[in-house]
Amino acid sequence: MKKKSLLIAIIAILAMTMTLFAGCGGGSDDGGDGSAAAGETYTLKMGGVDAPDDVSTQTMEKFAELVNEKTGGAVTIETYPAGQLGNYDEMYQEIKKGNLDAGLFTVYGSDTDPAIEILYLPFASTDMESWKKLVEYGGDFWNEIESIHADQGVQLLGLYNNGFLGLAYAKLKETPETGLFDFSQKKDELMRVPGMESMQKSCEGMGYSTTVMAYTDVYTAMQTGTVDGEWAGGPTLNYYNFKDVLKYFVDYRGALDIYMMVMNQELFAGMPEEYQTAIKEAADEATEFGNELLAQQDEELIQKMQDEGITVIAPTDEQRAEMQKYFKENVWPDITAPFNQDLVKELTAE
């Protein structure tokens, strides 16, 4: 009798254990269709750095929407914009550790490998179409950046162009007639640059004196005259964040503010193949959506700047070509040493 009772108890425990595991994400109730993805569910957190109405945030939300749609609701992505989960370098470190699932933000060489900063090489491309061709999926540039992230335990999903950088000023002495576009001429202005050596050297290569400063300090520094201007972003970023202290915006389109859509590699690799495919497709479509929206918005905000009294100065195509030639010959040799030299040669030859 005791043996029979013990056997019944063991069977009951086994039944409960099987029921418990069937309810977990790792199990699958595929209804007999044999799909590896059936029954798997995930809820992921994704961090961003910009305001809720910014194009980069809209890009994250589009990605979340598409992933949900393409996986039949099995993968849900919760988006956290405006630095709610930390600044860009903090979030990248958390993604590496597996404490955060995904993000969309700038990634510098200090967080990965200095070679990644080839993406920000000034005057490598000066329009959206040439940039998209340069970094297309599966090409040499894409493979280089993907490999750098992989070494950090991070999966690259997509590249979003947050704008072609211009220089914004509270005070500007030079004009196109007095050497504004002549990079061999020393300028009077002190410009704020981010803590990235290649960007600091690039701004100095344009003839400016520079000071490294955190982005969060830029508005006050321009307002008080601590700096005369800043190199931080394109028309969209400058209009929404600095228009009250700007007097001039020069649309150099000399460098790129690239955001990388990334995910913890172990998490991604552990997902069913169907979900991996869906996520990659969603990332491609979402970043394309963001790139097109940003290009359109940049044009609109250039006009808004002018309407609100900010002087916008843009070089001609010929002047921009001369600036690009000057950089390739005089500035690139000083900043490209950490980069993949085969890629540098490709760019130099163009």
Summary tags:
single chain, 350 residues, alpha/beta, D-Maltodextrin-Binding Protein, domain 2, nine-stranded mixed beta sheet, disordered N terminus
Report on this model:
The structure is a single chain. With 350 residues, this protein is α/β, with parallel strands linked by helices. It has a single domain, classed as D-Maltodextrin-Binding Protein, domain 2 (3-Layer(aba) Sandwich), CATH 3.40.190. The protein has twelve helices and nine strands. It has helices spanning 2-22, 55-70, 88-97, 128-134, 140-150, 197-205, 218-224, 235-242, 265-269, 273-307, 317-335, 341-349; strands at residues 42-48, 75-80, 102-105, 154-169, 190-193, 209-212, 229-230, 248-264, 311-313. Strands 1, 2, 3, 4, 5, 6, 7, 8 and 9 form a nine-stranded mixed sheet that branches. Helix 2 (55-70) packs antiparallel against helix 10 and helix 6 crosses helix 11 (317-335). The longest helix has 35 residues, at 273-307. The protein is globular, with a radius of gyration of 25 Å.
CATH A-level architecture? 3-Layer(aba) Sandwich
SSE run: HEHEHEHHEEHEHEHEHHEHH
Q: Please tell me what the overall shape is.
A: globular
CATH class: Alpha Beta
CATH superfamily: Bacterial extracellular solute-binding protein, family 7
Number of strands: 9
Rg, please? 25 Å
CATH fold type = D-Maltodextrin-Binding Protein, domain 2
What composes the largest sheet? 9 strands, mixed
Number of helices: 12
Name the poorly predicted regions.
Answer: 1-34
Number of domains: 1
Helix content: 40-55%
Measure the end-to-end span. 87 Å
Please identify the structural class as seen in this structure: alpha/beta
How much β-strand is present in the residues? 15-25%
Average pLDDT reading: 89
